[in-house]
């Protein structure tokens, strides 16, 4: 393998990490300094942010690479951090959370001056449902109280934080589920009984225009998904199949993409029959989208009333042109495979957690060519919330992942330390941040920033009260060196891009011959990978935001940043 292929050093061993001293202290806080306890972490184009649990109020802060914090605002004290939702576009983020029978929405651009509570709904109920999206310089919040108080859409103007109710259908017997922006249009999804409807929203007067096709579903759920900028939806339709010369009636789940000209949905993927479940969207690699599904995608038998097939767990690759089955992993008739809704998208792979009744939580990897288990028994089957690895709090850098462990030291291999994997089978190493017997580091708040992973943990250092200090650490998983790959490519600022901001076609200006190119999101996820890309790249399928471009030329690594604004 020639050196040029070493764009990012992917295989990292625990010994090399420690020998290279890739774990570094950034800043420490003592007990009297009111050490920050991050309970929610996210990043956007403006940087890294955390929700800190600090008595008597919680705070939303921006985290700097030197460990300092900029307080953006105080948050309402009582809320469920685990259920806090964050969506970002460029340097803007909207944060929502539920607590004390109320739902709160905060908007921030990374500065205290433009961080504000933009909307809240008091005296909600346990059956509340909400979703939100960015669209044409505004934020739209779809909200349903679960009872006849509010069922509608709220518009928030980002420029002045003003808000207004675009429509409220509280008097109607329906359920508002979601809102999405696609191809310059705004859509909502609502249901009446077991029928889902997709409707275009007129943002001027709040009127709705139903898409021709109804999204029939036996259990109303959120059917929308975005394939790049194209709207797609899941639907279930009655169908007739022929088996052994006899026609049988059954149900079939489909993915359909929106056709704006005809105002209809057209089928691109036959997900499965009868027992098919709503697929779980994993993410995208190189512009292609990957889904994990449980269900019967082939029919094996039919009776007088129904049909069924070989139930299994399947990895699918989906584009606007259709779907391809990558791999099935369950044995015929096995229904134990489930998914927990936890995943992390790395450069060329997707880490996901699959839970079975027999084995508990297992760490898996999905790739364009395979679906395989990395490590089994990463959590106790009966106490998943108390022990194991918290993949939902993990951070990725290139193809590597750092995962905080949660539990007791009696839980073999899964105590409160940091864990590392490069996605190879069996590779899950514990990184002891505090190499001292009987002491656990309890890593929290992992995030990716400036080609490094940061996290907060306990330290061997003590404050003047003799209490272990809380410290912000950084670990370099992107450029780790191994004995097999002893070289790290040099970086030179010899690459320029234009126009910047760009609206669709990005031009590269460099005297070097580019052998390989990769584009990463601000969160460190690989979104595009090209060999011999030339000097112009089509990025119209990417979402608006700030991206990092890394280009390989021989043994040089050229980097640049650009802002996509379509």
Low-pLDDT stretches: 1-21, 381-387, 408-414, 480-493
Class inferred from helices and paired strands: mainly beta
- Mean pLDDT level: 79
Measured by DSSP, the beta-strand proportion falls in: over 45%
As a whole number of angstroms, the C-alpha radius of gyration is 24 Å
From the spread of the alpha carbons, the general shape counts as: globular
Largest sheet: 5 strands, antiparallel
- Count up the helices: 1
Helix content: under 10%
User: Tally of extended strands?
Assistant: 48
State the end-to-end distance: 39 Å
Describe this structure in words.
Among the domains are: 1-30 and 336-488, no CATH class; 490-564, Immunoglobulin-like (Sandwich), CATH 2.60.40. Helices cover 1% and strands 56% of the residues. The chain is globular, with a radius of gyration of 24 Å. It is built from one helix and 48 strands. The chain is mainly beta and 566 residues long. The strands form twelve sheets. Strands 14, 15, 16, 17 and 18 form a five-stranded antiparallel sheet that branches. Strands 33, 34, 35, 36 and 37 form a five-stranded antiparallel sheet that branches. It has a five-stranded mixed sheet with strand order 41-48-47-44-45, with no helix packed on it.
């Amino acid at each position: 393998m020639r050196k040029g292929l070493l764009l990012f050093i992917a295989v990292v061993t625990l010994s090399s990490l420690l020998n290279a001293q890739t774990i570094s202290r950034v800043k420490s806080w003592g007990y009297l300094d009111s050490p920050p306890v991050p309970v929610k972490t996210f990043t956007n184009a403006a940087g890294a942010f955390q929700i800190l649990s600090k008595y008597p109020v919680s705070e939303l802060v921006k985290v700097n690479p030197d460990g300092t914090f900029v307080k953006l605002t105080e948050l309402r004290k009582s809320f469920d951090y685990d259920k806090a939702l964050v969506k970002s576009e460029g340097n803007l983020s909207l944060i929502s959370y539920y607590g004390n029978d109320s739902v709160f929405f905060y908007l921030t651009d990374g500065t205290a001056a433009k961080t504000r509570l933009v909307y809240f709904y008091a005296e909600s109920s346990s059956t509340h449902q909400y979703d939100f999206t960015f669209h044409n310089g505004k934020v739209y919040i779809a909200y349903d109280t679960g009872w006849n108080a509010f069922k509608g859409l709220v518009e928030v103007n980002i420029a002045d934080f003003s808000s207004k109710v675009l429509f409220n259908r509280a008097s109607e017997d329906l359920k508002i589920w979601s809102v999405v922006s696609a191809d310059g249009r705004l859509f909502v999804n609502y249901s009446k009984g077991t029928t889902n409807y997709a409707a275009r929203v007129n943002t001027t007067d709040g009127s709705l225009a139903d898409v021709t096709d109804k999204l029939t579903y036996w259990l109303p759920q959120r059917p929308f998904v975005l394939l790049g900028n194209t709207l797609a939806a899941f639907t279930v339709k009655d169908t007739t199949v022929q088996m052994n010369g006899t026609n049988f009636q059954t149900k079939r789940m489909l993915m359909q993409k929106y056709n704006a000209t005809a105002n209809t949905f057209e089928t691109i993927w036959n997900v499965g029959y009868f027992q098919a479940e709503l697929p779980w969207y994993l993410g995208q690699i190189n512009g292609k989208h990957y889904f994990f599904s449980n269900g019967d995608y082939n029919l094996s038998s039919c009776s007088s009333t129904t049909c069924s097939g070989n139930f299994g767990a399947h990895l699918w690759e989906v584009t606007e042109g259709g779907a391809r089955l990558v791999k099935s992993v369950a044995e015929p008739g096995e229904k134990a495979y489930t998914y927990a809704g936890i995943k992390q998208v790395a450069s060329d792979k997707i880490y996901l957690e699959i839970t079975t009744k027999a084995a508990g939580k297992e760490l898996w990897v999905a790739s364009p060519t395979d679906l395989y288990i990395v490590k089994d028994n990463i959590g106790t089957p009966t106490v998943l919330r108390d022990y194991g690895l918290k993949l939902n709090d993990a951070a990725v850098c290139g193809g590597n992942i750092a995962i905080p462990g949660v539990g007791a030291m009696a839980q073999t291999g899964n105590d409160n330390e940091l864990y590392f994997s490069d996605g190879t089978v069996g590779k899950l190493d514990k990184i002891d941040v505090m190499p001292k017997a009987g002491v656990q580091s309890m890593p929290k708040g992992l995030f990716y920033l400036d080609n490094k992973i940061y996290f907060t943990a306990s330290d061997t250092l003590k404050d003047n009260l003799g209490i272990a200090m809380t410290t912000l650490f950084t670990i370099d998983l992107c450029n780790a060196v191994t004995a097999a790959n002893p070289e790290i490519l040099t970086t030179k600022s010899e690459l320029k891009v234009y126009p910047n901001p760009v609206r669709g076609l990005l031009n590269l200006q460099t005297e070097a011959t580019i052998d390989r190119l990769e584009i990463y999101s601000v969160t460190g996820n690989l979104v595009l990978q090209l060999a011999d890309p030339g000097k112009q790249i089509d990025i119209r399928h990417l979402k608006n935001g700030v991206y990092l471009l890394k280009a390989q030329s021989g043994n040089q690594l050229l980097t640049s940043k650009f802002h996509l604004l379509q």
